[in-house]
Design brief:
The structure is a homodimer. Chain A is mainly α and about 150 residues long. The first copy, chain A, has one domain: Arc Repressor Mutant, subunit A (Orthogonal Bundle). In chain A, strands 1-2 form a two-stranded antiparallel ribbon. In chain A, a hairpin with a 5-residue loop joins strand 1 and strand 2. In chain A, helix 2 packs across helix 3. The radius of gyration of chain A is 18 Å and the shape is elongated. Chain A starts with a helix and ends with a helix. About 5% of the residues of chain A have low confidence. At the A-B interface, helix 1, helix 4, helix 5 and helix 6 of A face helix 1, helix 4, helix 5 and helix 6 of B. The structure holds a DNA duplex (30 and 30 nucleotides).
Chain lengths: ~150, ~150
DNA sequence: ATAATAGTTGACAAAAATAGTCAGGTATGA
DNA sequence: TCATACCTGACTATTTTTGTCAACTATTAT
């Protein structure tokens, strides 16, 4: 029941990009320096986020990444789903297994009730938090310090 | 963000034990046959559940396992915590890291807000479901079939 | 007693996932 | 045309998962 570093690093990277002016791209090098994550690993993560349409890249000098939607339109669930592959705690409740999520144990599988509830709880939680929320919190913390 | 088979198998085993009369022990062999899980692996899981006080063992012929508390007093969270080690999606929000869960990133770590909320959502969900609930559901399903 | 049943324990091992690294490539602006 | 910075795929070490196996201990029926 662990999230991998992909999600935690990915969220930190996305937050770093979101905190900048909309027109200013954030380079991997900047993120690496600020967050202490290796450049090569960040490349992998941001590439994935770009292919899933969460960020856009700007090449050349002064290049980097910008959000492809407004911070209020990007949820933590979007980021986690992209980087972990999916968000489901047990594969039998993944939508891939049909709309009624039938696994090999059939419809009378009682434990599946639990995993469905859990999947819903996780989904609801992560979908309720946007990058805008986190930016606001970051600004609040910064202000409190000064 | 995956639960291991330890949790899914473990819950099925616990449910099998809970479905039997309180005074009748359920052997690993029975569970293995009914659930299609290997005897050797079940031994590992039930041992852990016993050491954490969720089941008691009865040795010798007609032996097996019984619940050490009433089904209404055992939650899915108990089982998952025992078998996965803990229930926290990110180690930085584990209580081991102090009451305020300080990680190396300190108190001003904004992403931590997310992981705390997630940990709470998961915990609340799994703590709200008891073995009694699942037994009731199993009986309901069985009745519907006949 | 003793044989059969059934839990106890620790060590071992294959397979998969994680957490990166690395080399070489492409696009862009000064 | 050079420096910056993204792009891509392949590769690898480590850790976790998912078990297996062998030998042992306790209990009951005969």
């Amino acid at each position: 029941m662990k999230l991998s570093t992909k999600s935690t690093y990915g969220l930190r990277a996305m937050l770093a990009i979101a905190m900048k002016d909309k027109n200013t791209a954030t380079s991997i090098n900047d993120i690496s320096g600020a967050e202490g994550i290796s450049v090569a690993y960040l490349e992998q993560l941001l590439n994935r986020l770009r292919r899933h349409g969460l960020v856009e890249s700007v090449r050349g000098p002064k290049g980097g990444y910008i959000l492809s939607r407004r911070p209020s339109e990007i949820t933590v669930a979007d980021i986690v789903k992209t980087l972990e592959g999916n968000i489901y705690p047990v594969h039998c409740v993944s939508p891939k297994n049909g709309p009624l999520s039938a696994c090999s144990r059939g419809a009378s599988c009682v434990p599946k009730i639990v995993w469905h509830k859990l999947a819903r709880a996780i989904s609801d939680c992560l979908e309720s938090i946007t990058l805008e929320d986190l930016c606001a919190e970051a600004i609040r913390i910064k202000r409190r310090k000064s």
